[in-house]
Design goal:
Strand order of the largest sheet: 1-2-4-3
Mean pLDDT: 85
Distance between the termini: 81 Å
CATH superfamily of one domain: Ribosomal protein S6/Translation elongation factor EF1B
Shape: elongated
CATH topology of one domain: Alpha-Beta Plaits
Structural class: alpha+beta
Number of strands: 4
Helix content: 55-70%
Length: 187
């Protein structure tokens, strides 16, 4: 014979409920009756106020703080997206202007530009890459926790200096406004 879910729940919870009922009847209720009327009213008020405080300070305020933090994140991300759109337009317009220009050393140019826009300290790897033809040099560049605003200035400086950004991968950094970057630069 199979038991229903309610019967199973009753079998599980009945011993606990009996213990709690016995504890209420034998210990707490006699103590409560011995209290004066004013002390009983104080307990009633605390019984109402305590759960209300738990809900407000334990649930609602942390949710509100989280919502504010997410809104601030969204604002920072919108600003970054607008800067990226602006840079994409600039790179599309200026990319062809520097095609004939060749650099003696792409690595030296990238390091110089990195120092100029204060990104050199975030560069973790600068390594030559195979695949350049007709004297064109390629370079792999990696940055960790670089400020996004400085990265936009760096990309603009690359375009102005006639260096081409073949590919770039940007990932969110450890905090808002900072990114991890892996790029291939050609010049």
């Amino acid at each position: 014979m199979s038991m229903s879910l309610m019967d199973r729940m009753r079998v599980i919870w009945e011993p606990w409920l009996n213990r709690i009922d016995r504890l209420l009847q034998e210990q707490w209720l006699p103590r409560y009756r011995q209290l004066s009327r004013r002390e009983q009213q104080l307990l009633h008020g605390a019984g109402i106020l305590l759960p209300l405080l738990v809900v407000v300070f334990g649930i609602l305020l942390p949710l509100h703080d989280r919502q504010l933090a997410l809104r601030a994140n969204v604002a920072a991300l919108k600003q970054q997206a607008a800067e990226a759109q602006m840079l994409a337009g600039m790179l599309a317009g200026q990319g062809k202007a520097g095609i004939g220009r060749r650099h003696a050393s792409v690595m030296a140019s990238v390091e110089k530009l990195g120092k100029r826009v204060k990104l050199r300290e975030y560069m973790t790897r600068i390594r030559p890459q195979p695949g350049g033809t007709n004297g064109v040099q390629r370079l792999l560049l990696q940055m960790k926790d670089a400020p996004y605003a400085s990265l936009v200035r760096f990309q603009h400086a690359l375009a102005q200096d006639g260096l081409h950004l073949l590919s770039i991968r940007i990932q969110q950094g450890s905090r808002a406004g900072f990114v991890h970057v892996q790029a291939v630069i050609e010049g």
